[in-house]
Amino acid sequence: MFVNFRRLRKCQFVQLMTTCLVLSVVMICWEEVDNNIVSHIKSYSYRYLINNFTYVNKSLTIPREQARRFSNFRYLLDHPDKCTGEDVLLLLFVKSSPEDIERRNAIRSTWGNETYIQKTLGVTVKVVFALGASQTSKKKPAWSKRSGGGIQGQLIREDRLYADLIQQDFLDSFHNLTLKLIMQFHWMHSHCAHARFLMTADDDIFVHMPNLVSYLQDVSSRGITDFWIGRVHRGSPPVRSKHSKYYVPFEMYKWLAYPDYTAGAGYVVSGDVADKIYHVTLTLNASLHIDDVFMGICANAIGVSPQEHVYFSGEGKAPYHLCIYNEMMTSHGHVEDIYDLWKAATHPQVKQWSSGLMGGLYCRLVKISLLCKPYHFNTYPCKAAFL
């Protein structure tokens, strides 16, 4: 039998080169594969097979005097009488940075306009902005802060005009978002405990206030308790890549999965849940800087689970269409377009076009075409088209 050794060596060489190429690609992509696939498999296994977060609560429980360092900041701006003597349906905290006055003004002029809500929707919603201290202000001496100069001086003047800034003396940064979350629950406990609901939201979110108010009124009329609703993340693993801003070292959180939580862009809890969260923060280590995850840890400690609402968005924008506006609760990532979106989403034509048999059928088809796409992520799921 004749064997062509030259051809055989050539095939072996091609196989060797192919193997090296494949291994190189795997090595280059392994970190991404490990972060996005392997870690999620481990996380889901932990959540559904083991599913015991009791150890998480025990390990993060600390004495009250130690936990006080996460909340014992002095108020730079405060309005303790904001809710006094009023029947408040919703206390809405908007997380904002000191420099983002244009975003705050846009919210005040659109979905966060308390006068519009009171006159048009007939309920009281209190909208306040949660802030820490700007980096430049923290570096300045005390006498400079008192003089009203710089960013802090601008905030003082802004607050004199609108009386809606709640600010504590910790550095306003991504890694202090948990401190800002704790501030919201503590402020509500002290000054607005009678509010039926608490919402926390980012300042680049759009809230369809008429839809949200109608929904919360229905929930309130039914006397529902342990209420927590938003875009739910289940079985999410900690990010171990040091290149990510969501990086959480093993020493900070050593388990394979987080308790269920809602996206921090915007979620709502009932007043009874807000009170329980306040009390549990008095004995929890809040070093974990991802605020929505910390909320999940707090809720798990009190036995409250988040519920999915298909019209609360995650990190993405909702499609621009009147059939979407008819059901919309929140949409994320709106800054420049917030005025136009508010005008379009609250236009009377929205209800006219989407009502009735033909309107309902038309909107069903539109929502299927807009939401049921394989590359459609982080906003409303496909099932929203069928509800």
TrEMBL record:
<comment type="similarity">
    <text>Belongs to the glycosyltransferase 31 family.</text>
</comment>
<dbReference type="GO" id="GO:0000139">
    <property type="term" value="C:Golgi membrane"/>
</dbReference>
<dbReference type="InterPro" id="IPR002659">
    <property type="entry name" value="Glyco_trans_31"/>
</dbReference>
<keyword id="KW-0808">Transferase</keyword>
<keyword id="KW-0325">Glycoprotein</keyword>
<keyword id="KW-0333">Golgi apparatus</keyword>
<feature type="signal peptide">
    <location>
        <begin position="1"/>
        <end position="35"/>
    </location>
</feature>
<dbReference type="GO" id="GO:0006493">
    <property type="term" value="P:protein O-linked glycosylation"/>
</dbReference>
<protein>
    <recommendedName>
        <fullName>Hexosyltransferase</fullName>
        <ecNumber>2.4.1.-</ecNumber>
    </recommendedName>
</protein>
<keyword id="KW-0812">Transmembrane</keyword>
<keyword id="KW-0472">Membrane</keyword>
<dbReference type="Pfam" id="PF01762">
    <property type="entry name" value="Galactosyl_T"/>
</dbReference>
<keyword id="KW-0735">Signal-anchor</keyword>
<dbReference type="GO" id="GO:0030148">
    <property type="term" value="P:sphingolipid biosynthetic process"/>
</dbReference>
<keyword id="KW-1133">Transmembrane helix</keyword>
<keyword id="KW-0328">Glycosyltransferase</keyword>
<dbReference type="GO" id="GO:0047256">
    <property type="term" value="F:lactosylceramide 1,3-N-acetyl-beta-D-glucosaminyltransferase activity"/>
</dbReference>
<keyword id="KW-0732">Signal</keyword>
<comment type="pathway">
    <text>Protein modification; protein glycosylation.</text>
</comment>
